[in-house]
Amino acid sequence: MKKIVIVGAGGLGRQALAQLQIDFSHGVDWVIDGFLDERGADVVPESLYYPWLGYPETFVPESNQLFVAAIGDPASRQKQLAPLLAKNAEFISVRTRCILGARTQYGPTFFGYNVSCGVDCRIGAYSFIDQEALLGHDVVIGDFVHIGPRCTLAGHVHVEDGAQIHSGALIARGVRIGAGAVVGMGAVVFKDVAAGATVAGNPARVVFQK
């Protein structure tokens, strides 16, 4: 029987636990083993009933363990997953109560409740797409991306690796969000966002550029 290890014990980790507990395969193909978190055991409350298993940096994956990435900040997610991936940890996708369009391809990414996407989307690995996000057709999302709840991405939007799109943002058709860029909460984006830029407002304007 496979055991699930959740990497990250904050709010997203607790959300991942809740979704995994109602997954169709719970108790049949796998059981939940516990959490990894770089902050230590104190971040896992007793009310979750699952233990802190160790630090991602030093943890040694077992052959019967599968991993779920549940860390909000893309840079921190990449940092904490790197030592596990180097030890051949196997990550899986979570997609509870989601509607994914025909021919959509995705890697080991987390989909929150009620995420919906159109046809022919391509979604990379180790990303986190929070609940009720709406993706149009032909959307491309890279690796280690974070998309907040109730964001809307129109057709042909391209989100590059490590970008963050915060809650309620609206991205117009064909817009490209560059690697490591940040889109503020509720922003309305009509133009491409350069790599490393932070944009906010309606219409979105650059407020910071790395």
UniProtKB/TrEMBL annotation:
Superkingdom assignment: Bacteria
Residues binding acetyl-CoA, per UniProt: H146
Active site positions: H137 (proton acceptor)
Domain PglD N-terminal: residue ranges: 3-80
Record site feature (Increases basicity of active site His), residues: D138
A UniProt-annotated Pfam family: PglD_N
Residues holding substrate: G72
Entry similarity comment: Belongs to the transferase hexapeptide repeat family.
UniProt name for this protein: PglD N-terminal domain-containing protein
Organism: Oxalicibacterium flavum
